[in-house]
Amino acid sequence: MAMRWKKWKPETGLHSVGAGPYRASDYHDGKETFATVYPAGGDWKGPLRGWYFVSDAGDQYENTSNRLAGSEDEAKAQAVAWVKAALATAPA
Questions:
Q1: What are the tens digits of pLDDT across the range 29-48?
Q2: If you placed Cys at 23, which of 8, 34, 81, 84 could pair as Cys (CB 3.0 to 4.6 Å)?
Q3: How many domains does the chain fold into?
């Protein structure tokens, strides 16, 4: 299965008032989303502090909001590695 990243669309209307320049991205195969990378901050709440991912691939769940990655690419790499490991150990 071919998986890829897709960045969320920018906020529009009143939602865009407090939105920052950073947007989340989904790791998916076209049917199912396996992980999402989010910015920690960078909007009206404060400066960007890092990036984290949330995933429920296979039958496992991971949320790295308590250990932020320094860049979006780093968080994406962590998410891909975690998803691959979770899917490899998931029951068939």
A1: 999 999 999 999 988 878 99
A2: 8
A3: 1
